[in-house]
Amino acid sequence: MVAAAKHGTIGYGINMYDPWCCYACYDALAMVYLNCTEFTDSGHNDDGMSTKLLKKRMDMGMESSGTTSEECYASNTPYQQTLSYCIKSQCDAEDVPSEKQNQCFQRLNNIGSDGPSLQQSLPPLSPTEQLAEHAEWLNTTMLVNEAYWNSDRGTIEEFETVERDHVAFSIAIMVVSVAVPLLCGAWQFFTSHFLSEVRGLLFQLQSYVVLPALWSKRHSQPLSYRLGYLPSRAMTIWITLYIGLNVLASSVPFRSVQPNTWFTNRSTEMVAYVGNRAGVLSFANMALAILFSGRNNPLLYFSSWDQTTQIIFHRWSARVAIVQAVIHSIVYTADYCYLKGDNVYYAEAAKPYFWWGIIATTAMGLMMGLSALPLRSYAYEIFLVSHIILAIISLVGSWYHVDLRYTKKWGYEVWLYIAFAFWAFDRLTRFARVVYNTIVQRPVARLELVPGTNVAMMTILLKKPSKAGIGQHTYVYFPSFGKAWESHPFTICGWDDQPFKRSANTSTSDLEASGATTPNQEVKNDAATTTRQARSSTSTDERYYVQCLFRSHAGMTAQIHAKLLANSPLHMPVAFEGFYGGHSTSHYVLKQADIVLCVAGGVGTTYASGFARQFARERVLASTSRSQKVVARCQKFVLAWSVREQGLLDHVKRRLLPNLDARDLDDGSMAYKFWVTGQSTAADSAPSSEVTKDETRVGVADGEELVQQQTGRMCVADVVDSVMTPKKRIVVLVCGPGSLSDDVRMEVTKCSRAGYVVHLIEESFSW
To answer: Where are the coiled-coil regions (predicted)?
Structure first.
């Protein structure tokens, strides 16, 4: 065997043919027969020396009319003396250390350090006769053919250099792809602290690159015919650079070496270089795609990217990996079919490694096709299962493709190790979260319909504080529905971890009004009822909770809605995974904000209500350490919510939003603006005595009503303009339908270009 198994990749732990002078000597003698060579009756194989040598170098093996065993090579004196003299003379000329020469000689002979050394194998007299270029027999000690040695020396040097470049470019792409999210986090930190003091180029970048949609205003809304989503302008720039890096890495630098002892012509040489480059890059991008698909990607904690942004890059890195895999397949198929002939193609295609490559590439192509937005939206559960299965087939197929062909000699499998590690880390972490929450929290869910709507409220009762917070979401499993493996994301809109202790000068009513203390009596009663039905011995005082609102769509939420129509409220055991989101990097701009505007549409209030509760808590509990506050500098908080059903508005006001009549909240620091876009029904007004009229104003501070309600559509431009204040840091949060988010983004961009210091935080689940 020419090269022993090593660790690492080519150029980084593995040297293919080091030193080149030594391996060129080995190649110059690789095709000659010795007096101990055994022959079959098949006759001479006429594939040509170049093809046979390439297969031998890459250890692919082939049928030959003569077989020379390792024992034959080791015991044949002319061969040993010719090889040792060539290595000594050629490598001395290149100043290769003697020890390195000896190691190479023993490695090529497979004799180990206990066998004869290079010095011991040298001939007593220097040979004078040179081996003919196409000689078939070696019967006496000779000089290797100088012309062939020079050609092979250049061939293997260039081939290994190109292979090292494959790895170097792949590492560079991975490093850059990881660095960009971290740089985005640093950018957000810098702009949140210094944007108001810095003008010029940085301010223009924020206004014309970071905030805007790619063109017009469409970003969160899908394209026509649901072809997909357009990334933001900043994300588009990064994706373009990323694709450009891959195109560049796939194209350069390739240099042809002629005459070449491995390839019969320049075309076959370039095909090998391009095909191998595309294959290695595909593996590297495949690992990136898996990294950015994970819920537990460590970059989420250190960058400004949220899950949605991460998924966008996951899709594009996967597309690039798939295209490169297809290029790899096409290039080698064309090489075998058109450059080497049908016989070579059929012989190669019959080998297991070839079939595994076809399986892996086919699975990748199916995975990309079945990920189209229309199919994903129509049957998300089916998409998810098929996506995972096809991804596993792709990885397994890729593994067998390189393992059967190279038997771990050149480290191509290292890229798959990285992909496996990313996938295993995410899956094991998710499993650990579910197991921990199930054992420690003993979660039980109470589900109830919001009267007059197709919205349900889920209260998950817990044994211990959950440490949930603003801007977070969780994945809930419903084993009662027979699909214990399926999870569904829900935004946290309310929680009670009792993180604050009542002080002597803080009344119970103030804390309850701000949402900063234990659940109100209704939630306590829910906890008691659910606990009894779950046959738990835990007292209601030991129960904590998190709350989620969700609208019925297709799939699991439709099944829940159907059960609630028959029996509401409904109690059932659940498992949950999380909590995700709400990382400190996303709070940089909030900590520096003077004014916060939350714009919500429909059940997007689940996101906004958490921030309203947090602001109220920090106002009421003013003694909280400034470092622990999320909106430490905020002087004004405005919630603007457009909702279709009056019943949902009443429910959220009663159960989730702080009461602005409470002490410390009636000074105008908080304000609500509601728009009801649907028609009120009897069902809307039945369950609650808090139903407002078409237009309601509650409380007045500094001449401005604290709570405003009106019918009709929200004018996004007026809402955003109403909070714009010169020399103030303003943060706009938005969560709602794609059209609303796009309108808000457009108006915030206009305000930024007008000179206001404004940041946008968009919560989107366009997965």
So the answer is: none
